[in-house]
Structures are given as C-alpha cells and as structure tokens.
Amino acid sequence: MEHVLFTQPNSPIYPKDLALLQQVFDQICVERGEDPSSIWASEIARTLLKLYKSGVRDEDLLLASIPRFRTRNAA
C-alpha cells in the first residue's frame, strides 16, 4: 500500500483518511491516558485536522507532530 506524505491542502477528507485521523487520535489518547472528551483531546483533534488540511497524510508524521505540540503548550 502506498503512503502519501503530502497532498493538496484543500482536498476533501475521505472515509479512509477520517479513519486514519481517528486511529491516530485514539492512539494518542490511549498512550497519554487521556479522556477523548477532554479539552486537551479536543485540541489534539483540531491539530490533527489542521495537519491533515496542511497536507500531512502520513500516520507517523501525524503521531510525531502531537508530542511536540503537547510539549510546547504544556508550560
């Protein structure tokens, strides 16, 4: 299966991409012990969508982007 790292920023969110975003979101929540309905989890969901809309489609890149976001905003 071919993994696309970056695509057009305004492309629609297809079901398989939505499933990827959900999988990444769920994985982050489980790893952090975070309630998916928490404020922090909402920020993560927004960030994942922002990354997706900016063209990031790779699971590893999405996962790697969130810890940096959390660290930067934790202080």
TrEMBL record:
This is Uncharacterized protein. It comes from Aminobacter niigataensis.
